[in-house]
Specification:
The complex is a heterodimer. By secondary structure, chain A is α/β, with parallel strands linked by helices. Chain A is built from five helices and six strands. In chain B, about 35% of the residues lie in helices and about 25% in strands. Chain B is globular and about 35 Å long. The chains are: A alpha/beta, B alpha+beta. Chains A and B meet through α2 and α3 of A and α1, α2, α3 and α4 of B.
């Protein structure tokens, strides 16, 4: 049984959007970590975490996203987070990770923030 | 935590397993609402209590101890404009003086260790009582912003 539903969209071979649904804590977080690790192992360099349907996040979920961001940076890629719920934004804010993780309000802003080649961005339309 | 409960207090005992974190959060959210806290304050309490429980689940009972079914106890007291929460385990404990000072930038880079930091940021009061071999009790207070 899946602990958390994670919707995935491939924008390009090296660009993937993950959209978890529900809560990200010590119970559900490991499943997201596993999915992100698999994608990174397969060569994904740019990640978007769409948190629009995440109702709760704490330091466990945050740590997983920070870890994924570090791995994308090691490959000259990047990561962005889409979030607008006040309680989710607050965790990024007080942990000082809002800038580090490129937290933005929309998927379009996330795509604009990440700097994968323009030709590839065009392919994602 | 075996003392009788007063009329504003409930106590839940949870298996030391992360799958019950959401249940603890639901309960504490209900008590926070009963105390009259606002939506944002209730959200803060949910994260802080979840962090305290996660710490207990991850650190209080090393697998080598082989305890059959360790538990954590969460006691919540809701009074007008104020919620008090105690999260207690009977695990190995630690010396709170040896808790490293939080270097936020370093902790973020290490991908973890932000639980205690978040508790302090989100709650009005946080007190950690522990000693090696005698379990840990984290007491927290959240008040209605005025």
């Amino acid at each position: 049984m899946n602990r958390v539903n994670i919707q995935k969209t491939v924008l390009h071979d090296e660009v993937k959007v993950f959209a978890p649904v529900g809560e990200l804590d010590a119970y559900t977080g490991p499943e997201l970590r596993e999915e992100l690790t698999t994608a990174l192992d397969e060569g994904v360099r740019w990640l978007v975490l769409d948190m629009a349907r995440v109702e709760y996040i704490d330091s466990v979920g945050l740590g997983i996203i920070v870890g994924a961001a570090k791995r994308t940076a090691e490959r000259a890629g990047n990561l962005a987070v889409v979030a607008s719920r006040p309680n989710v934004l607050r965790v990024f804010e007080i942990s000082g990770t809002r800038e580090l993780l490129n937290v933005v309000a929309t998927l379009e802003e996330a795509q604009a923030r990440l700097s994968w080649p323009e030709a590839e961005k065009g392919g994602a339309q | 935590m075996s003392a009788p409960l007063d009329r504003d207090t409930i106590e839940i005992t949870s298996p030391c397993e992360p799958r019950f974190l959401s249940v603890v959060r639901l309960t504490v959210a209900g008590m926070a609402a009963r105390a009259g806290l606002g939506v944002a304050e209730v959200d803060d309490v949910k994260v802080a209590v979840s962090e305290a429980c996660t710490n207990a689940m991850e650190h209080a009972y090393p697998p080598a101890e082989g305890k059959a079914c360790p538990v954590i106890r969460v006691r919540m007291t809701a009074r007008e404009g104020e919620l008090r929460v105690e999260v207690e385990d009977e695990g190995g404990g630690f010396d709170p003086k040896r808790l490293p000072k939080v270097d936020l930038e370093q902790r973020v880079q290490e991908e973890g260790g932000l639980g205690v930091y978040l508790m302090h940021q989100l709650m009005d009061e946080v007190k950690i009582e522990s000693a090696p071999g005698s379990g840990t009790k984290i007491s927290m207070v959240k008040r209605l912003a005025r």
